Every structure is written in structure tokens, then in C-alpha cells.
Amino acid sequence: MPKVKPQADCVELVTAKGAYRASYVIACDGAVSKVAISLGLSPACGKPVFGVLAEVDARELPWTMDELHLFYDPEVLPRGYAWVFPKGDTVNVGWCCGLEYFRENRRAIAKRTASWAAPGLKELPRMRGGYIPAPRDLDKERLIQGRVLFAGDSAGVVEQWFYEGIFLACWSGYLAGRAAAKGRPKDYLKEVMKGPHGYVYYAAKFARSRIRTQRPCSRWLGSV
Ligand SMILES: Cc1cc2nc3c(=O)[nH]c(=O)nc-3n(C[C@H](O)[C@H](O)[C@H](O)COP(=O)(O)OP(=O)(O)OC[C@H]3O[C@@H](n4cnc5c(N)ncnc54)[C@H](O)[C@@H]3O)c2cc1C
Fold it and tell me: Which residue among 138, 153, 162, 174 has the greatest number of ligand 1 atoms within 8 angstroms of its CB, and so is best to mutate?
């Protein structure tokens, strides 16, 4: 676990490989940010979601896959959804839902999702997953801690409809790096509020209305 010690003119980092000093540190170490823990901050996760995915050999499926399928069923996947889409020779099958529900029901969810996404398959192979932050809004006070700037999942910058975080991690990381390079960390807050913040805030509002309105087992198909 790295130790992060903010000083007036720099940040000291103590890691297993040695001690370092940096003018600024950009924390982009994921939802369970060790930098945040070291600074005594709570995770920026809100009420987190847990996501799991598996890659199934396309030859094991009884059909040719050339579409993106999304499955919504609030009974099986509260606050989440399941997906299946082609990825070269494999098919990416996964789902996410409220962490509290995932803990209790992971076997039932896996079985149900496999039956939607890959009929005929008894179980999904080599599943891997992780926490997905689901804040209602960005915590503006937390984004900049002196000379430490938080970006991506470590800042909770995740779009709350599909829980997409890759482009927002790249975007917020870029903005943090640019502000640090200019020696103007407060620019980061301004830029984040102009751009990535909208994806978190409005998608979270939209997602709450989805929870109220979605019909069980509604299915949306779209071409990719
Ligand atoms: C199952 C699942 C499916 C998803 N699907 C999508 C999708 O289709 N599209 C999308 O946009 N988003 C998706 N997401 C969300 C997306 O993965 C994240 O929002 C995004 O990866 C966040 O990027 P990040 O760089 O902030 O954090 P991460 O990708 O978590 O990267 C953090 C990095 O920091 C490293 N790290 C942590 N601690 C230390 C340490 N002490 N020392 C050194 N390194 C450290 C980690 O090893 C990791 O490489 C999905 C998430 C899950 C769980």
C-alpha cells in the first residue's frame, strides 16, 4: 500500500520500491483507490455496482453473433443490466448490478444470464469482475486534495446509465495531467465540471428514472 504524504510544495510517495517526490500526483488507481485510502478518504463509489464478464468461444454458441444485446430485468439485475456482444472469435458476456444484491445472488444471476446470452451453455467460463463506482454526482471537494488530483474510477467519474468509465477515465486523466503540467490544479475542477461531470450527474438522474420505469425482461436489440 503506497503512502501519500502531501507537503506544501510537493507530494511524497513511499512505495515498496522506494520513496519519491512529485510536484503533483494524479490518482488513477481505480474504484478502490489506494491513494484515496492513504489520504483517509472514502471511496468515491456512492452505492457501488459490481460488474462481471466472461469471454465465450463463439464456436460454442448455437448461433452467429453480430449484434449487441442488452438485457434489463430489475428482478434479476437491480440497478444493472446484462450484455452480450461479439469480439473477434469470442463473445463478451457480462452483467452488472447493485453490489448488495450481487453478493447474495451471484449464482442465480450467472445462471440466468447464461441462459439469456448463451443458451445451451451450462456456465460461463473464467469470469472476472470488479467494482464500478455509482455516485449520484461528483464529489467536487474530493477531486483535488492539495497537489493530489483524482481521475477516472478513483474520482467516481463513471457514466451512470451503462456504467461506462473508460472514456471518462481517459478524459478526466487528460484534464488532470494538463492542469498539473500548467501548475494550476484548480483548472482541473473547472474543466471536469464543464465536461465529464454532466455524464455522471445527468446519467445518474436518468438511471434513477430507468429503475422506476423499466419493464421486467424488456429487451433492446441494436446493431453494432
Ligand atoms: C465487468 C466490467 C465491465 C465494464 N465494461 C465497460 C465498458 O464496456 N465500457 C466502459 O467504458 N467501461 C466499462 N467498465 C468500467 C471501466 O472498466 C472503468 O470505468 C475504467 O476502467 C476506469 O479506468 P481507471 O483507469 O480509472 O481505473 P482502472 O481501469 O481500474 O485502472 C486502475 C489501474 O491502477 C492500477 N493500480 C491500482 N493500485 C495500484 C498500485 N498501488 N500500484 C500500481 N498500480 C495500481 C490497477 O492495477 C489498474 O491497472 C466496466 C467495468 C467492469 C467491472
Answer: 153
